Amino acid sequence: MKTVKVQYKVKPGFAETNKANISKVMQELRELNDGGIKYSAFTCGDGQTFIHIAMFSDDSGQQKLNGLESFKNFQAALKESEPVEPPKPEMLELVDSNYVIF
């Protein structure tokens, strides 16, 4: 299993556009219906800081996510928006869970 956390902060005027772009990614993932990909996005209390958590059962899941047109568009739009704090990916290692992930 592979887990990635990405955190970044957008400019105030871009937050709603970013949420809409994330929703497009989620819709495409739902249509893909791949049980080996679990992906969630959150905002912090400031409404501008976003945290994404992506869990993959294997490397192919991350490749599928990266290959989605909606994900490519989301990444391009985020980069063009010149975030206040750029995306910072961080690999996470599972210690334990009270539910089965994969």
Key terms for this structure?
102 residues; alpha+beta; four-stranded antiparallel sheet; 3 helices; 4 strands
Question: Could you write a compact summary of the structure shown?
Answer:
The chain is an alpha+beta fold and 102 residues long.
Chain-wise SSE layout:
Elements: E1 2-9, H1 15-32, E2 37-43, E3 49-56, H2 59-67, H3 69-80, E4 85-92
Antiparallel strand pairs: 1-3, 1-4, 2-3
What can you see in these coordinates?
There is one protein chain. It contains three helices and four strands. The chain has helices spanning 15-32, 59-67, 69-80, and strands at residues 2-9, 37-43, 49-56, 85-92. A four-stranded antiparallel sheet has the order 2-3-1-4, covered by helices on one side. A hairpin with a 5-residue loop joins strand 2 (37-43) and strand 3 (49-56). Helix 1 runs antiparallel to helix 3. The longest helix has 18 residues, at 15-32. It is globular, with a radius of gyration of 14 Å.
> Secondary-structure element sequence?
EHEEHHE
Question: What Rg do the Cα atoms give?
Answer: 14 Å
Strand content: 25-35%
User: Total strand count, please?
Assistant: 4
* Shape by Cα distribution: globular
Number of helices: 3
Strand arrangement, largest sheet? Answer: 2-3-1-4
Largest sheet: 4 strands, antiparallel
Structural class label:
alpha+beta
Integer average pLDDT: 97
In helices, the fraction of residues equals 25-40%
Roughly how many Å apart are the termini?
8 Å
Low-confidence segments = none
